[in-house]
Amino acid sequence: MTSRHISLKDLAKELNVSISTVSRALRDHPDISSEVKEKVKQLALSKNYTPNPLAMGLLKQETRMIGVIVPDLVTHFYASIISGIEQVANEMGYFILLASSNESVEKEKQAIENLLKARVEGFIICQTQETQSTEHFEALIERSIPLVFFDRICLSDRVPTVTVDNKAAAQKITQHFYQQGYRRIAFISGPDQLNITKERMAGYLEGLKQSGLPEDPELIEHCNLSFESAKQAMARLLDTANPPDAVFGINDTVAFAAMQKIKERGLKIPDNVGLVGFTDDFHAMVVDPPLTSITHPTYAIGQEAARLFFQSKDNKQYSTPVVLQTQLIIRKSSQKTCHGDHDDAETAW
Amino acid sequence: MTSRHISLKDLAKELNVSISTVSRALRDHPDISSEVKEKVKQLALSKNYTPNPLAMGLLKQETRMIGVIVPDLVTHFYASIISGIEQVANEMGYFILLASSNESVEKEKQAIENLLKARVEGFIICQTQETQSTEHFEALIERSIPLVFFDRICLSDRVPTVTVDNKAAAQKITQHFYQQGYRRIAFISGPDQLNITKERMAGYLEGLKQSGLPEDPELIEHCNLSFESAKQAMARLLDTANPPDAVFGINDTVAFAAMQKIKERGLKIPDNVGLVGFTDDFHAMVVDPPLTSITHPTYAIGQEAARLFFQSKDNKQYSTPVVLQTQLIIRKSSQKTCHGDHDDAETAW
DNA sequence: TATTATCATGCAAAGCTTTGCGCTAAGCTT
DNA sequence: AAGCTTAGCGCAAAGCTTTGCATGATAATA
Question: Which UniProt keywords apply (chains A, B) (predicted)?
Answer without folding.
Answer: DNA-binding, Transcription, Transcription regulation
